């Protein structure tokens, strides 16, 4: 298929072997992330997605928090494997923390009571779209990434470290950096199991 958008999202793959180098200046990476989130659709144009973009030592600090919190719950004899995994995320150039502003959601629930039960669901969908958009935009720029979910384990410590508003709810983390490894071929289940087309 020659569609430019499809070709762009084909580049979005999970990269665990990250490096500190980036093919773009930090300011351009920041602008790319911000633009991807701003252009992502949201229900009722709520624009509930929020992001904290961490580079260098700040990103390292986040993954240090993750290790500290995991150390409290992972058995000591199993922690070396866990630590190695977290170190692979910290090896990247930066991390995007994806949040959803719960004040926006509760405001919409009050304003549109008929749909109140759906706004949290739609918020999760908006967040997923923003995550996908950022990940795809970074991949198109030659930047590797993987999507992680250490929330809510790290929420309080991250909020204290970066003065995160109480209404922001952490939904995902995207460590990013240089691609230090290639990608295996992606496999797909048979189309007949996923799609039904009627005409």
TrEMBL record:
Nitroreductase domain segment(s): 9-177
Classification via Gene3D superfamilies: NADH Oxidase
InterPro entries attached to this UniProt entry: Frm2/Hbn1 (IPR033877), Nitroreductase (IPR029479), Nitroreductase-like (IPR000415)
Protein name (Swiss-Prot/TrEMBL): Nitroreductase family protein
Organism: Ectopseudomonas mendocina
């Amino acid at each position: 298929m020659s569609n430019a958008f499809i070709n762009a999202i084909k580049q979005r793959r999970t990269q665990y072997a990250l490096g500190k180098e980036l093919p773009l200046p930090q300011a351009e990476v920041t602008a790319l992330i911000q633009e991807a989130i701003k252009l992502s659709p949201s229900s009722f144009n709520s624009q509930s997605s929020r992001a904290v973009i961490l580079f260098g030592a700040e990103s390292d600090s986040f993954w240090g928090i993750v290790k500290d919190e995991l150390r409290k719950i992972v058995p000591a004899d199993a922690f070396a494997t866990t630590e190695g995994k977290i170190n692979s995320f910290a090896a990247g150039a930066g991390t995007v923390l994806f949040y959803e502003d719960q004040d926006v959601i509760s405001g919409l629930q009050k304003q549109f009571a008929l749909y109140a039960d759906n706004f949290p669901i739609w918020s999760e969908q908006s967040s997923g779209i923003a995550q996908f958009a950022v990940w795809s935009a970074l991949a198109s720029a030659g930047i590797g990434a993987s999507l992680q979910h250490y929330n809510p384990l790290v929420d309080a410590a991250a909020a204290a470290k970066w003065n995160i508003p109480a209404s922001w709810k952490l939904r995902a983390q995207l460590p990013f950096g240089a691609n230090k490894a290639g990608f295996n071929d992606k496999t797909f289940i048979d189309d007949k199991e996923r799609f039904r087309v009627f005409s």
